[in-house]
Design a protein that fits this description.
- By secondary structure, the protein is an alpha/beta fold.
- Helix content is about 35%, strand content about 15%.
- The strands form 3 sheets. It has a 6-stranded parallel sheet. Strands 3-2-4 form a 3-stranded parallel sheet, with helices on both faces.
- Helix 7 links the parallel strand 5 and strand 6.
- Helix 1 packs parallel to helix 10, helix 6 packs across helix 7 and helix 6 crosses helix 10.
- The longest helix has 20 residues.
- The radius of gyration is 19 Å and the shape is globular.
- The model has no long low-confidence stretch (mean pLDDT about 95).
- Bound molecules: NADPH dihydro-nicotinamide-adenine-dinucleotide phosphate (NDP).
- NADPH dihydro-nicotinamide-adenine-dinucleotide phosphate binds next to helix 10.
Length: about 300
């Protein structure tokens, strides 16, 4: 049987091209004395969250944009956190406000995400923005699903007409992605199956996919016997697997990339696939928020 020459869809060149497209827009804002600004709220001392926030804010700084991290104690009360969010909603220098998830268990994530001003909700997690996305009139598209569309487009993968199977139905990845891929738009028009832990016989569904997106948070969940040769695979998962390296862990996706080489038409690596695009889309949404606040129309 002839083996397929699998394309490795790395995120970096896609993100670099996106930053190049953003530069003139950032310059136009600069001419008006506006620097797009992000504030990230980091609650508690989860090391993975600190790394994610660091990689986001570093990118803003590299691009000459404003990025500030507010680190808050893990035992902060709901009311105190609401007060911080209210203060930052009102701060003109920040066009985007993100609350890094997960939050400590005693904090009601949904209530807190709803308290972020929709105009600053550059993560696109506010119900107002999620509702507009579902209605086909998005204001801010959540960064990871938006990044996946950008990645597929960059690598010339047509979505329309495909059977897209998504594993994972979170509000930040699976659900918005299902809405985007099934939208009656040139970037959508796929037939979508959304799988989760209630799905009977996951492998039956993943084998039907000609586009498979896995966002389960389960390292190595999807194995070669669960796919059909020629499938395009987007591996969203980032899982820390313990090892004896100095860091004490390495990152693994939800799919075993190595074993899919020769089977998949194309696959994203972990790390270095979807991750850089999530950050790039956060920058893009913050620039968009700054443009809207300044009345600058971007075509
Ligand atoms: P969540 O934990 O919120 O959601 C996981 C989803 O996967 C749930 O819907 C869950 O089902 C489903 N699931 C879990 N196990 C199985 C299984 N065995 N079979 C079928 N479905 C399953 O995770 P997120 O969406 O926030 O993130 C998913 C992964 O993507 C994580 O590894 C995360 O770190 C990563 N991630 C990566 C990003 C990037 O930039 N690359 C950005 C965001 C996330 P149910 O609803 O029934 O519980």
């Amino acid at each position: 049987m002839s083996s397929i020459d699998t394309v490795l869809m790395t995120g970096k060149p896609v993100a670099t091209a996106l930053y190049e497209r953003l530069k003139p827009r950032i310059e136009v804002l600069g001419q008006k004395g506006i620097t797009p600004g992000l504030v990230a709220l980091l609650v508690g001392d989860d090391p993975a969250s600190a790394i994610y926030v660091g990689s986001k804010t570093r990118k803003f700084e590299e691009l000459g944009l404003l990025a500030e991290t507010r680190t808050l104690p893990g035992d902060i009360s709901r009311d105190d956190l609401l007060a911080v969010i209210a203060e930052l909603n009102a701060a003109d220098r920040f066009h985007g406000l993100l609350v890094q998830l997960p939050l400590p268990n005693h904090l009601p994530a949904n209530d807190l995400l709803e308290s972020v001003a929709p105009a600053k909700d550059i993560d696109g997690f506010h119900p107002f923005n999620l509702g507009r996305l579902l209605a086909g009139n998005p204001t801010f598209i959540p960064c990871t699903p938006q990044g996946i569309l950008e990645l597929l487009s960059h690598y010339g993968i047509t979505v329309a007409g495909r059977h897209a199977v998504i594993v994972g139905r979170s509000n930040i990845v699976g659900k918005p992605l299902a809405a985007l891929l099934s939208a009656k738009q040139p970037s959508g028009n796929a037939t979508v199956t959304l799988c989760h832990t209630g799905t009977a016989n996951l492998a039956h569904h993943t084998r039907q996919a000609d586009l498979l997106i896995v966002a389960s948070g389960q390292a190595g969940l999807v194995t070669p016997d669960m796919v059909t040769p020629g499938v395009v695979i987007v591996d969203v998962g980032i899982n820390r697997t313990g090892d004896d390296s100095p860091k004490g862990y390495h990152l693994r996706g939800d799919v075993d990339t190595e074993k899919m080489l020769g089977i998949a038409q194309a696959i994203t690596p972990v790390p270095g696939g979807v991750g850089p695009l999530t950050v790039a889309m956060l920058v893009s949404n913050t620039v968009l928020a700054a443009e809207r606040s300044a009345g600058v129309v971007h075509n």
